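Dear all,

This email documents one entry for the complex benchmark we are building for the journal club exercise. For each entry we list the sequence lines for every component of the assembly. Then comes the predicted three-dimensional structure of the complex as a C-alpha coordinate string, followed by one or two observations. Please use this as the template for your own entries, and keep the labels exactly as they appear.
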Amino acid sequence: MRTFRLVLATLMGATSLVAISLTSSIAASASSATALATCKTTINNQEFTKGKLTVGTDNPVYTPWFVNNKPSNGKGFESALTYAIAGELGVSKSNVVWVYEPFDNSYTPGPKKFDFDINEISYTAQRAEAVTFSESYYDVTQSIVALKGSVVAKEHTPAELKTYLYGDQIGTTGLAYIYDHIHPTQQTRVYSTLDEAVLALQTKQINAIVVDTPDGQYMATSEVENAKKQADGVQVGQFPSTGEHYGLLFTKGNPLVGCVNVAISALRANGTLAALTAKWLDIYTSVPVIKP
Amino acid sequence: MSLDTDESSSTPNLFAPRYKRVFTGRNGLAVSIVSSVALIGVLVALFFWAPGSATVRYYYFNGHYMWQSFVGHPKTGLLSVGKGFLTNIWMCLLCEVLILILGLGVAWIRVSRSPLLAPFRVLATAYTDVFRGVPLLLVVFLVGFGLPALGLGVLSSQSPDVYGCVALTITYVAYVAEVFRAGIYSVPNGQILAARSLGLTHGTIMRRVTLPQAVRTVIPPLLNDFISLQKDTALVSVLGAIEAVRAAQIYESTVFNGSGLVVASLLFLAITIPLTRFTDRLLDQDRRRRLASLS
Protein backbone atom coordinates (compact mmCIF):
# COMPACT_ATOMS: atom_id res chain seq x y z
CA MET A 1 0.00 0.00 0.00
CA ARG A 2 2.77 2.34 1.03
CA THR A 3 4.69 1.53 -2.11
CA PHE A 4 1.63 2.11 -4.24
CA ARG A 5 1.13 5.55 -2.75
CA LEU A 6 4.74 6.39 -3.34
CA VAL A 7 4.50 5.37 -6.97
CA LEU A 8 1.30 7.35 -7.38
CA ALA A 9 2.89 10.41 -5.85
CA THR A 10 5.90 10.11 -8.11
CA LEU A 11 3.69 9.73 -11.18
CA MET A 12 1.63 12.76 -10.27
CA GLY A 13 4.77 14.75 -9.65
CA ALA A 14 6.20 13.78 -12.99
CA THR A 15 2.99 14.66 -14.84
CA SER A 16 2.80 18.06 -13.28
CA LEU A 17 6.47 18.70 -14.13
CA VAL A 18 5.82 17.86 -17.78
CA ALA A 19 2.78 20.13 -17.73
CA ILE A 20 4.80 22.99 -16.29
CA SER A 21 7.59 22.63 -18.83
CA LEU A 22 5.06 22.48 -21.68
CA THR A 23 3.35 25.66 -20.60
CA SER A 24 6.65 27.40 -20.09
CA SER A 25 7.84 26.65 -23.62
CA ILE A 26 4.57 27.78 -25.15
CA ALA A 27 4.59 30.93 -23.11
CA ALA A 28 8.30 31.54 -23.76
CA SER A 29 7.92 33.95 -26.66
CA ALA A 30 5.11 35.87 -25.01
CA SER A 31 6.86 35.97 -21.64
CA SER A 32 10.16 37.18 -23.14
CA ALA A 33 8.45 40.35 -24.24
CA THR A 34 7.00 40.93 -20.78
CA ALA A 35 10.29 39.89 -19.17
CA LEU A 36 12.12 42.44 -21.28
CA ALA A 37 9.64 45.10 -20.26
CA THR A 38 10.19 44.25 -16.60
CA CYS A 39 13.95 44.23 -17.10
CA LYS A 40 13.96 47.77 -18.45
CA THR A 41 12.91 48.96 -15.00
CA THR A 42 14.69 46.42 -12.79
CA ILE A 43 18.14 46.75 -14.33
CA ASN A 44 18.39 50.29 -13.00
CA ASN A 45 18.92 48.86 -9.54
CA GLN A 46 21.34 46.20 -10.78
CA GLU A 47 23.66 48.28 -12.90
CA PHE A 48 27.20 49.01 -11.75
CA THR A 49 26.62 52.71 -12.45
CA LYS A 50 22.96 53.61 -12.34
CA GLY A 51 21.50 54.48 -15.72
CA LYS A 52 24.58 53.25 -17.58
CA LEU A 53 25.61 49.89 -18.95
CA THR A 54 29.29 49.48 -18.02
CA VAL A 55 30.99 46.95 -20.31
CA GLY A 56 34.53 45.64 -19.85
CA THR A 57 36.90 44.37 -22.52
CA ASP A 58 40.60 43.98 -23.13
CA ASN A 59 42.91 46.43 -24.86
CA PRO A 60 43.91 45.96 -27.61
CA VAL A 61 40.94 44.12 -29.09
CA TYR A 62 40.93 42.46 -32.47
CA THR A 63 38.82 42.02 -35.58
CA PRO A 64 36.33 40.57 -36.27
CA TRP A 65 35.21 40.95 -32.64
CA PHE A 66 35.97 44.67 -32.63
CA VAL A 67 37.12 47.00 -35.38
CA ASN A 68 40.03 49.46 -35.18
CA ASN A 69 40.50 48.67 -31.47
CA LYS A 70 37.49 50.89 -30.74
CA PRO A 71 34.76 49.01 -28.85
CA SER A 72 32.51 52.07 -28.86
CA ASN A 73 32.16 52.30 -32.65
CA GLY A 74 29.51 49.58 -32.81
CA LYS A 75 31.55 47.69 -35.39
CA GLY A 76 32.74 44.14 -34.99
CA PHE A 77 30.70 41.23 -33.63
CA GLU A 78 31.10 41.84 -29.92
CA SER A 79 30.70 45.60 -30.13
CA ALA A 80 27.57 45.29 -32.30
CA LEU A 81 26.18 42.59 -30.01
CA THR A 82 26.75 44.74 -26.92
CA TYR A 83 24.77 47.60 -28.44
CA ALA A 84 22.06 45.17 -29.54
CA ILE A 85 21.76 43.85 -25.97
CA ALA A 86 21.70 47.41 -24.66
CA GLY A 87 18.93 48.21 -27.13
CA GLU A 88 16.83 45.25 -25.95
CA LEU A 89 17.24 46.43 -22.36
CA GLY A 90 16.32 50.00 -23.23
CA VAL A 91 19.76 51.48 -22.68
CA SER A 92 20.62 54.15 -25.22
CA LYS A 93 23.86 53.96 -27.19
CA SER A 94 25.33 56.95 -25.36
CA ASN A 95 24.74 55.24 -22.01
CA VAL A 96 26.97 52.30 -22.86
CA VAL A 97 30.33 52.87 -21.13
CA TRP A 98 33.41 50.82 -22.05
CA VAL A 99 36.07 50.05 -19.41
CA TYR A 100 39.39 48.26 -19.70
CA GLU A 101 39.63 44.77 -18.23
CA PRO A 102 42.68 42.57 -19.01
CA PHE A 103 41.64 39.12 -20.16
CA ASP A 104 43.61 37.26 -17.50
CA ASN A 105 41.99 39.27 -14.70
CA SER A 106 38.47 38.85 -16.00
CA TYR A 107 37.72 35.39 -14.62
CA THR A 108 39.45 35.78 -11.25
CA PRO A 109 37.18 35.81 -8.17
CA GLY A 110 36.00 39.03 -6.56
CA PRO A 111 33.82 42.07 -7.39
CA LYS A 112 34.20 43.58 -10.87
CA LYS A 113 34.14 47.17 -12.00
CA PHE A 114 31.74 46.49 -14.87
CA ASP A 115 28.28 45.06 -15.49
CA PHE A 116 29.65 42.46 -17.85
CA ASP A 117 32.84 41.71 -19.75
CA ILE A 118 32.72 40.75 -23.42
CA ASN A 119 36.04 39.42 -24.67
CA GLU A 120 35.70 35.98 -26.29
CA ILE A 121 35.74 34.39 -22.86
CA SER A 122 35.08 30.65 -22.98
CA TYR A 123 32.71 29.21 -20.43
CA THR A 124 34.44 26.58 -18.29
CA ALA A 125 33.13 24.89 -15.16
CA GLN A 126 36.28 26.01 -13.34
CA ARG A 127 35.81 29.68 -14.23
CA ALA A 128 32.12 29.43 -13.43
CA GLU A 129 33.06 28.80 -9.80
CA ALA A 130 34.63 32.26 -9.59
CA VAL A 131 32.38 34.28 -11.89
CA THR A 132 28.93 34.09 -13.48
CA PHE A 133 28.49 33.56 -17.22
CA SER A 134 25.59 34.51 -19.45
CA GLU A 135 24.24 31.96 -21.88
CA SER A 136 26.14 31.39 -25.12
CA TYR A 137 26.38 34.19 -27.68
CA TYR A 138 28.82 32.28 -29.89
CA ASP A 139 29.38 28.53 -30.03
CA VAL A 140 33.08 27.78 -30.39
CA THR A 141 33.96 24.84 -32.58
CA GLN A 142 37.29 23.05 -32.88
CA SER A 143 39.05 23.09 -36.23
CA ILE A 144 42.03 21.43 -37.90
CA VAL A 145 45.00 23.46 -39.09
CA ALA A 146 47.53 21.83 -41.42
CA LEU A 147 50.10 22.85 -44.01
CA LYS A 148 48.90 23.96 -47.44
CA GLY A 149 49.09 21.12 -49.91
CA SER A 150 49.64 18.55 -47.17
CA VAL A 151 47.84 15.23 -47.21
CA VAL A 152 45.60 16.37 -44.33
CA ALA A 153 44.32 19.24 -46.47
CA LYS A 154 43.13 16.79 -49.12
CA GLU A 155 42.10 13.68 -47.20
CA HIS A 156 40.11 14.14 -44.02
CA THR A 157 37.39 11.56 -43.69
CA PRO A 158 36.92 10.34 -40.10
CA ALA A 159 38.97 7.20 -40.88
CA GLU A 160 41.76 9.22 -42.46
CA LEU A 161 41.83 11.71 -39.60
CA LYS A 162 42.71 8.89 -37.19
CA THR A 163 45.92 8.10 -39.04
CA TYR A 164 47.58 11.51 -38.66
CA LEU A 165 50.14 12.66 -36.12
CA TYR A 166 48.70 15.53 -34.09
CA GLY A 167 50.31 18.11 -31.86
CA ASP A 168 48.73 20.52 -29.44
CA GLN A 169 49.23 22.69 -26.39
CA ILE A 170 48.74 21.08 -23.00
CA GLY A 171 45.46 21.81 -21.22
CA THR A 172 43.59 23.11 -24.27
CA THR A 173 40.12 22.14 -25.47
CA GLY A 174 41.76 21.28 -28.79
CA LEU A 175 43.90 18.60 -27.14
CA ALA A 176 40.85 17.28 -25.30
CA TYR A 177 39.02 17.09 -28.64
CA ILE A 178 41.80 14.98 -30.13
CA TYR A 179 41.66 12.55 -27.22
CA ASP A 180 37.87 12.43 -26.92
CA HIS A 181 36.67 12.54 -30.52
CA ILE A 182 39.43 11.85 -33.04
CA HIS A 183 41.19 8.95 -31.25
CA PRO A 184 44.31 9.02 -33.44
CA THR A 185 46.36 5.85 -33.73
CA GLN A 186 49.69 7.65 -33.15
CA GLN A 187 50.49 9.27 -29.83
CA THR A 188 49.74 12.99 -29.92
CA ARG A 189 52.67 15.33 -29.23
CA VAL A 190 51.88 17.66 -26.37
CA TYR A 191 53.73 20.99 -26.20
CA SER A 192 53.95 23.63 -23.47
CA THR A 193 52.79 26.45 -25.74
CA LEU A 194 50.78 26.74 -28.94
CA ASP A 195 53.73 28.48 -30.60
CA GLU A 196 55.83 25.34 -30.19
CA ALA A 197 53.05 23.31 -31.78
CA VAL A 198 53.03 25.75 -34.70
CA LEU A 199 56.81 25.42 -34.98
CA ALA A 200 56.46 21.63 -35.00
CA LEU A 201 53.84 21.90 -37.75
CA GLN A 202 56.07 24.18 -39.84
CA THR A 203 59.00 21.81 -39.54
CA LYS A 204 56.74 18.88 -40.44
CA GLN A 205 57.18 17.09 -37.12
CA ILE A 206 53.41 16.84 -36.86
CA ASN A 207 50.64 16.67 -39.47
CA ALA A 208 48.01 18.87 -37.86
CA ILE A 209 46.94 20.97 -34.89
CA VAL A 210 43.43 21.04 -33.46
CA VAL A 211 42.53 24.49 -32.16
CA ASP A 212 39.34 26.48 -31.80
CA THR A 213 38.11 27.98 -35.06
CA PRO A 214 38.85 31.67 -34.37
CA ASP A 215 42.41 30.92 -33.20
CA GLY A 216 42.83 28.44 -36.04
CA GLN A 217 41.84 31.04 -38.63
CA TYR A 218 44.54 33.39 -37.33
CA MET A 219 47.04 30.55 -37.03
CA ALA A 220 46.50 29.36 -40.60
CA THR A 221 46.66 32.81 -42.19
CA SER A 222 49.22 34.62 -40.02
CA GLU A 223 51.30 32.25 -37.92
CA VAL A 224 52.14 29.19 -39.99
CA GLU A 225 54.79 30.23 -42.50
CA ASN A 226 57.08 28.49 -44.94
CA ALA A 227 60.82 29.16 -45.29
CA LYS A 228 60.07 32.23 -47.45
CA LYS A 229 57.91 33.76 -44.70
CA GLN A 230 54.73 33.23 -46.70
CA ALA A 231 51.55 32.05 -45.02
CA ASP A 232 51.57 28.29 -45.37
CA GLY A 233 48.68 27.12 -43.22
CA VAL A 234 45.19 26.03 -44.12
CA GLN A 235 42.17 25.60 -41.92
CA VAL A 236 41.05 22.24 -43.22
CA GLY A 237 37.66 22.18 -41.53
CA GLN A 238 35.75 22.67 -38.33
CA PHE A 239 34.09 19.98 -36.25
CA PRO A 240 30.50 20.04 -34.95
CA SER A 241 30.08 22.07 -31.76
CA THR A 242 30.64 20.26 -28.49
CA GLY A 243 28.91 22.91 -26.41
CA GLU A 244 31.99 25.04 -25.86
CA HIS A 245 30.91 28.65 -26.08
CA TYR A 246 31.69 32.25 -25.31
CA GLY A 247 29.64 33.91 -22.59
CA LEU A 248 29.42 37.38 -21.12
CA LEU A 249 31.18 37.45 -17.78
CA PHE A 250 29.62 38.87 -14.60
CA THR A 251 30.68 39.23 -11.00
CA LYS A 252 29.73 35.97 -9.28
CA GLY A 253 26.00 36.04 -8.50
CA ASN A 254 25.26 39.36 -10.21
CA PRO A 255 21.43 39.34 -10.72
CA LEU A 256 21.79 41.38 -13.90
CA VAL A 257 22.69 38.19 -15.75
CA GLY A 258 18.98 37.24 -15.71
CA CYS A 259 17.93 40.22 -17.80
CA VAL A 260 20.95 39.98 -20.11
CA ASN A 261 20.05 36.34 -20.78
CA VAL A 262 16.51 37.41 -21.63
CA ALA A 263 17.95 39.97 -24.05
CA ILE A 264 20.24 37.38 -25.68
CA SER A 265 17.29 35.00 -26.06
CA ALA A 266 15.24 37.76 -27.65
CA LEU A 267 18.07 38.56 -30.08
CA ARG A 268 18.33 34.89 -30.97
CA ALA A 269 14.55 34.60 -31.45
CA ASN A 270 14.23 37.67 -33.69
CA GLY A 271 17.22 36.67 -35.84
CA THR A 272 19.49 39.55 -34.86
CA LEU A 273 22.14 37.24 -33.39
CA ALA A 274 22.23 35.15 -36.57
CA ALA A 275 22.44 38.30 -38.70
CA LEU A 276 25.32 39.70 -36.62
CA THR A 277 27.13 36.35 -36.79
CA ALA A 278 26.71 36.23 -40.57
CA LYS A 279 27.85 39.84 -40.93
CA TRP A 280 30.97 39.78 -38.76
CA LEU A 281 32.01 36.17 -38.25
CA ASP A 282 31.78 35.00 -41.83
CA ILE A 283 35.47 33.99 -41.85
CA TYR A 284 34.69 31.45 -39.12
CA THR A 285 31.28 30.23 -40.20
CA SER A 286 32.49 29.70 -43.77
CA VAL A 287 35.04 27.06 -42.70
CA PRO A 288 33.67 23.73 -43.99
CA VAL A 289 32.25 21.42 -41.34
CA ILE A 290 33.87 17.98 -41.21
CA LYS A 291 33.26 14.94 -39.01
CA PRO A 292 35.81 13.63 -36.51
CA MET B 1 95.70 1.07 15.64
CA SER B 2 93.42 -1.74 16.70
CA LEU B 3 90.89 -3.15 14.28
CA ASP B 4 88.57 -4.15 17.13
CA THR B 5 85.43 -2.10 17.58
CA ASP B 6 85.57 -0.29 20.90
CA GLU B 7 82.41 1.72 21.57
CA SER B 8 83.68 3.40 24.74
CA SER B 9 86.88 4.63 23.13
CA SER B 10 87.07 8.38 22.59
CA THR B 11 88.81 7.97 19.25
CA PRO B 12 86.32 6.88 16.58
CA ASN B 13 87.07 3.67 14.79
CA LEU B 14 87.53 4.67 11.17
CA PHE B 15 87.08 1.08 10.01
CA ALA B 16 83.71 0.51 11.62
CA PRO B 17 80.64 0.31 9.35
CA ARG B 18 78.98 3.61 8.62
CA TYR B 19 76.00 3.17 10.93
CA LYS B 20 78.33 2.45 13.85
CA ARG B 21 80.36 5.57 13.16
CA VAL B 22 77.22 7.73 13.06
CA PHE B 23 75.58 6.32 16.19
CA THR B 24 78.62 6.12 18.50
CA GLY B 25 78.90 7.78 21.88
CA ARG B 26 76.82 7.38 24.97
CA ASN B 27 73.18 6.54 24.08
CA GLY B 28 74.04 7.52 20.52
CA LEU B 29 71.33 5.44 18.95
CA ALA B 30 68.61 6.61 21.37
CA VAL B 31 69.46 10.29 20.94
CA SER B 32 69.45 9.93 17.17
CA ILE B 33 66.04 8.27 17.18
CA VAL B 34 64.48 10.84 19.50
CA SER B 35 65.80 13.81 17.54
CA SER B 36 64.72 12.30 14.21
CA VAL B 37 61.21 11.54 15.44
CA ALA B 38 60.90 15.03 16.92
CA LEU B 39 62.01 16.79 13.74
CA ILE B 40 59.87 14.68 11.41
CA GLY B 41 56.94 15.04 13.82
CA VAL B 42 57.19 18.84 13.76
CA LEU B 43 57.34 18.92 9.95
CA VAL B 44 54.38 16.54 9.56
CA ALA B 45 52.36 18.46 12.16
CA LEU B 46 53.10 21.72 10.34
CA PHE B 47 51.91 20.18 7.08
CA PHE B 48 48.62 19.02 8.59
CA TRP B 49 48.19 22.22 10.57
CA ALA B 50 48.50 24.59 7.62
CA PRO B 51 45.22 26.33 6.69
CA GLY B 52 45.35 24.94 3.15
CA SER B 53 46.45 21.47 4.20
CA ALA B 54 43.24 19.73 3.16
CA THR B 55 43.36 21.37 -0.29
CA VAL B 56 46.98 20.43 -0.82
CA ARG B 57 46.42 16.87 0.35
CA TYR B 58 43.42 16.53 -1.97
CA TYR B 59 45.18 18.15 -4.91
CA TYR B 60 48.53 16.36 -4.67
CA PHE B 61 48.14 13.32 -2.45
CA ASN B 62 44.75 11.87 -3.31
CA GLY B 63 45.08 8.05 -3.39
CA HIS B 64 42.40 7.52 -6.01
CA TYR B 65 43.84 10.09 -8.41
CA MET B 66 47.39 8.89 -7.76
CA TRP B 67 46.47 5.36 -8.76
CA GLN B 68 44.38 6.46 -11.74
CA SER B 69 47.16 8.68 -13.07
CA PHE B 70 49.67 5.86 -12.60
CA VAL B 71 47.74 3.26 -14.60
CA GLY B 72 46.03 5.78 -16.92
CA HIS B 73 42.51 5.56 -18.27
CA PRO B 74 42.61 4.86 -22.00
CA LYS B 75 38.85 5.18 -22.49
CA THR B 76 38.87 8.84 -21.48
CA GLY B 77 42.18 9.56 -23.16
CA LEU B 78 44.05 9.85 -19.86
CA LEU B 79 47.67 8.86 -20.28
CA SER B 80 49.49 6.61 -17.87
CA VAL B 81 52.29 8.21 -15.86
CA GLY B 82 53.76 4.74 -15.33
CA LYS B 83 53.88 4.09 -19.06
CA GLY B 84 55.41 7.51 -19.59
CA PHE B 85 58.11 6.65 -17.11
CA LEU B 86 59.27 3.78 -19.33
CA THR B 87 60.27 6.46 -21.84
CA ASN B 88 62.38 8.13 -19.15
CA ILE B 89 64.08 4.85 -18.34
CA TRP B 90 65.00 3.76 -21.84
CA MET B 91 66.13 7.25 -22.73
CA CYS B 92 68.44 7.54 -19.75
CA LEU B 93 69.88 4.03 -20.25
CA LEU B 94 70.55 4.58 -23.95
CA CYS B 95 72.00 8.04 -23.31
CA GLU B 96 74.21 6.82 -20.49
CA VAL B 97 75.89 4.24 -22.74
CA LEU B 98 76.53 6.86 -25.43
CA ILE B 99 77.69 9.39 -22.85
CA LEU B 100 80.24 7.05 -21.27
CA ILE B 101 81.73 6.07 -24.61
CA LEU B 102 81.83 9.57 -26.09
CA GLY B 103 82.84 11.17 -22.79
CA LEU B 104 85.84 8.88 -22.51
CA GLY B 105 86.71 9.68 -26.12
CA VAL B 106 86.63 13.43 -25.54
CA ALA B 107 88.67 13.08 -22.34
CA TRP B 108 91.19 10.93 -24.16
CA ILE B 109 91.61 13.60 -26.82
CA ARG B 110 91.98 16.33 -24.21
CA VAL B 111 94.78 14.54 -22.33
CA SER B 112 96.56 13.40 -25.50
CA ARG B 113 99.94 14.93 -26.28
CA SER B 114 100.32 14.07 -29.96
CA PRO B 115 100.90 17.21 -32.09
CA LEU B 116 98.77 15.57 -34.77
CA LEU B 117 95.72 15.79 -32.49
CA ALA B 118 96.19 19.48 -31.68
CA PRO B 119 93.11 20.73 -33.64
CA PHE B 120 90.97 18.05 -31.99
CA ARG B 121 92.26 19.11 -28.58
CA VAL B 122 91.17 22.68 -29.31
CA LEU B 123 87.79 21.45 -30.54
CA ALA B 124 87.31 19.19 -27.52
CA THR B 125 88.17 22.03 -25.15
CA ALA B 126 85.79 24.43 -26.90
CA TYR B 127 83.08 21.77 -26.87
CA THR B 128 83.30 21.08 -23.14
CA ASP B 129 83.45 24.81 -22.41
CA VAL B 130 80.36 25.59 -24.49
CA PHE B 131 78.11 22.72 -23.51
CA ARG B 132 78.86 22.85 -19.82
CA GLY B 133 77.90 26.51 -19.96
CA VAL B 134 74.64 26.37 -21.93
CA PRO B 135 71.52 25.39 -19.96
CA LEU B 136 70.34 21.91 -20.94
CA LEU B 137 66.83 23.16 -21.67
CA LEU B 138 68.16 25.46 -24.38
CA VAL B 139 70.16 22.64 -25.95
CA VAL B 140 66.98 20.53 -25.97
CA PHE B 141 65.09 23.33 -27.72
CA LEU B 142 67.87 24.01 -30.23
CA VAL B 143 68.25 20.35 -31.16
CA GLY B 144 64.56 19.46 -31.00
CA PHE B 145 63.28 22.36 -33.07
CA GLY B 146 66.48 23.29 -34.92
CA LEU B 147 67.40 19.97 -36.53
CA PRO B 148 63.91 19.36 -37.99
CA ALA B 149 63.89 22.92 -39.35
CA LEU B 150 67.07 22.23 -41.32
CA GLY B 151 65.16 19.84 -43.59
CA LEU B 152 67.99 17.31 -43.78
CA GLY B 153 66.04 14.17 -44.60
CA VAL B 154 66.56 11.45 -42.00
CA LEU B 155 68.32 13.85 -39.63
CA SER B 156 65.26 16.09 -39.59
CA SER B 157 62.49 13.53 -39.31
CA GLN B 158 63.20 11.82 -36.01
CA SER B 159 60.85 11.55 -33.04
CA PRO B 160 61.16 14.00 -30.12
CA ASP B 161 62.53 11.16 -27.99
CA VAL B 162 65.49 10.83 -30.34
CA TYR B 163 66.18 14.57 -30.42
CA GLY B 164 65.89 14.61 -26.64
CA CYS B 165 68.48 11.85 -26.39
CA VAL B 166 70.81 13.73 -28.73
CA ALA B 167 70.51 16.91 -26.64
CA LEU B 168 71.03 15.06 -23.35
CA THR B 169 74.04 13.23 -24.78
CA ILE B 170 75.64 16.40 -26.14
CA THR B 171 75.40 18.17 -22.78
CA TYR B 172 76.30 15.26 -20.55
CA VAL B 173 79.30 14.18 -22.63
CA ALA B 174 80.82 17.59 -21.84
CA TYR B 175 80.44 16.96 -18.10
CA VAL B 176 81.47 13.33 -18.15
CA ALA B 177 84.55 14.06 -20.29
CA GLU B 178 85.74 16.42 -17.58
CA VAL B 179 85.10 13.79 -14.91
CA PHE B 180 87.14 11.26 -16.87
CA ARG B 181 89.90 13.80 -17.44
CA ALA B 182 90.10 14.51 -13.71
CA GLY B 183 90.28 10.75 -13.10
CA ILE B 184 93.08 10.34 -15.60
CA TYR B 185 95.06 13.18 -14.03
CA SER B 186 94.55 11.65 -10.56
CA VAL B 187 96.71 8.65 -11.47
CA PRO B 188 100.18 9.30 -10.00
CA ASN B 189 102.86 10.07 -12.57
CA GLY B 190 105.06 7.35 -11.09
CA GLN B 191 102.66 4.75 -12.45
CA ILE B 192 103.16 6.01 -15.98
CA LEU B 193 106.93 6.30 -15.56
CA ALA B 194 107.07 2.76 -14.22
CA ALA B 195 105.00 1.49 -17.13
CA ARG B 196 107.19 3.31 -19.61
CA SER B 197 110.31 1.83 -18.04
CA LEU B 198 108.81 -1.57 -18.78
CA GLY B 199 108.71 -0.60 -22.45
CA LEU B 200 104.94 -0.20 -22.80
CA THR B 201 103.68 2.03 -25.59
CA HIS B 202 101.66 5.19 -24.92
CA GLY B 203 98.39 3.52 -25.96
CA THR B 204 98.99 0.44 -23.87
CA ILE B 205 99.84 2.53 -20.82
CA MET B 206 96.57 4.38 -21.24
CA ARG B 207 94.51 1.21 -21.60
CA ARG B 208 96.29 -1.01 -19.09
CA VAL B 209 97.62 1.38 -16.45
CA THR B 210 95.98 4.81 -16.45
CA LEU B 211 92.35 4.10 -17.36
CA PRO B 212 91.70 1.20 -14.95
CA GLN B 213 92.84 3.34 -12.03
CA ALA B 214 91.19 6.50 -13.34
CA VAL B 215 87.81 4.87 -13.91
CA ARG B 216 87.79 3.31 -10.45
CA THR B 217 88.33 6.74 -8.93
CA VAL B 218 85.57 8.43 -10.90
CA ILE B 219 82.82 5.82 -10.56
CA PRO B 220 81.06 7.73 -7.74
CA PRO B 221 80.98 11.08 -9.62
CA LEU B 222 79.87 9.23 -12.76
CA LEU B 223 76.99 7.70 -10.85
CA ASN B 224 76.14 11.19 -9.64
CA ASP B 225 75.91 12.36 -13.23
CA PHE B 226 73.81 9.31 -14.08
CA ILE B 227 71.30 10.16 -11.36
CA SER B 228 71.14 13.71 -12.61
CA LEU B 229 70.71 12.50 -16.20
CA GLN B 230 67.86 10.28 -15.11
CA LYS B 231 65.97 13.29 -13.78
CA ASP B 232 66.83 15.50 -16.75
CA THR B 233 65.06 13.13 -19.15
CA ALA B 234 61.93 14.98 -18.00
CA LEU B 235 63.11 18.03 -19.96
CA VAL B 236 62.47 16.19 -23.21
CA SER B 237 58.76 16.76 -22.58
CA VAL B 238 59.12 20.27 -24.07
CA LEU B 239 59.59 18.63 -27.47
CA GLY B 240 56.18 16.99 -27.24
CA ALA B 241 57.37 13.59 -26.03
CA ILE B 242 55.02 12.00 -23.53
CA GLU B 243 57.21 10.98 -20.60
CA ALA B 244 56.23 10.69 -16.94
CA VAL B 245 56.12 14.41 -16.10
CA ARG B 246 54.26 15.41 -19.26
CA ALA B 247 51.78 12.56 -18.78
CA ALA B 248 51.21 13.81 -15.23
CA GLN B 249 50.72 17.38 -16.48
CA ILE B 250 48.19 16.22 -19.07
CA TYR B 251 46.40 14.28 -16.35
CA GLU B 252 46.41 17.39 -14.16
CA SER B 253 44.98 19.64 -16.84
CA THR B 254 42.26 17.12 -17.66
CA VAL B 255 41.15 16.10 -14.17
CA PHE B 256 42.25 19.26 -12.31
CA ASN B 257 44.21 17.18 -9.83
CA GLY B 258 47.97 17.19 -9.47
CA SER B 259 48.39 13.82 -7.77
CA GLY B 260 49.97 12.50 -10.97
CA LEU B 261 52.91 14.85 -10.41
CA VAL B 262 53.53 13.24 -7.02
CA VAL B 263 53.32 9.81 -8.69
CA ALA B 264 55.95 10.92 -11.22
CA SER B 265 58.15 12.16 -8.36
CA LEU B 266 57.80 8.83 -6.56
CA LEU B 267 58.75 6.95 -9.72
CA PHE B 268 61.89 9.06 -10.10
CA LEU B 269 62.70 8.51 -6.43
CA ALA B 270 62.24 4.76 -6.83
CA ILE B 271 65.18 4.85 -9.22
CA THR B 272 67.34 7.60 -7.79
CA ILE B 273 67.29 6.65 -4.09
CA PRO B 274 68.69 3.12 -4.58
CA LEU B 275 71.26 4.61 -6.96
CA THR B 276 72.24 7.27 -4.43
CA ARG B 277 72.57 4.65 -1.69
CA PHE B 278 74.70 2.56 -4.02
CA THR B 279 76.94 5.55 -4.79
CA ASP B 280 77.29 6.24 -1.08
CA ARG B 281 78.38 2.67 -0.48
CA LEU B 282 80.96 2.86 -3.21
CA LEU B 283 82.28 6.12 -1.76
CA ASP B 284 82.47 4.46 1.64
CA GLN B 285 84.37 1.50 0.27
CA ASP B 286 86.70 3.80 -1.58
CA ARG B 287 87.32 5.83 1.55
CA ARG B 288 88.11 2.75 3.55
CA ARG B 289 90.45 1.52 0.84
CA ARG B 290 92.34 4.79 0.92
CA LEU B 291 92.41 4.96 4.72
CA ALA B 292 93.76 1.42 4.81
CA SER B 293 96.59 2.42 2.53
CA LEU B 294 97.48 5.21 4.95
CA SER B 295 97.81 3.00 8.02
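Observations: Chain A has two domains: 34-140+243-285, 142-238. Confidence is low (pLDDT under 50) at residues 17-27 of chain A.
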